[in-house]
């Protein structure tokens, strides 16, 4: 049994679930959008040896991510998944292999942008007392959790074991009256779409922003939430059971 985190899985999670959430941050947080609004269109590629590869495109205060980094203005290579994970936890400073003339954007725009993201994803108890901050932070976390479930299901050995028992179809994950995502399962692999599914075979919905936040922060167990009515699970039990097993692994990676 694999009990500890796998560094390659963590790299995929950091790339698509964490850095990928910059897309949503720029949509939801004016402070983030303002940081890159006046900058010329620019793209930053992250190329991890034996790991993920993706490019962030910035234009008019917006951000989008695409897989691969063939055509990028700035390229940040990483010799291993461990090195890339070090970028996310702040222990590694990458050296661009392309785009040295854009170093000012990295230092003055991109780094502060990731600082804002960190503020919302690792929110303090004091910040969460602000209802508007709580709402934005939790909306971002719904996207992070959804994408993280997909990455753990597709890369982590225990996650793949659970995914092997999930039939094809979609699972809705979200908050009543708030955001939700689609976990689309095909051939035991999962893709996360950051929008509500048109139809689904199973659903896991949280009663409120506060309930979702408590679960994301490890203060509420999903099954406990079902018992108290704070978490609603409907549809195919085997899909939900295995999604919950994967969610347990996600909490280890995001802790």
- Percentage of residues in strands: 15-25%
- The CATH superfamily label of the largest domain reads SCP2 sterol-binding domain
Report how far the terminal alpha carbons are from each other. Answer: 20 Å
CATH class of the largest domain: Alpha Beta
Q: What ranges have pLDDT less than 50 throughout 5 or more consecutive residues?
A: none
Strand order of the largest sheet: 7-6-5-8-9
What helical percentage do the residues reach? 40-55%
Shape: globular
Backbone structural class: alpha+beta
Helix count equals: 10
Instruction: Work out the count of structural domains.
Output: 2
Would you tell me the overall average pLDDT?
93
CATH topology of the largest domain: Nonspecific Lipid-transfer Protein, Chain A
Question: What's the gyration radius in Å?
Answer: 18 Å
Q: Can you name the CATH architecture of the largest domain?
A: 2-Layer Sandwich
State the total count of DSSP E strands.
9
Q: Which sequence of SSEs, written as H and E, runs from N to C?
A: HHHEEEEHHHHEEEEHHEH
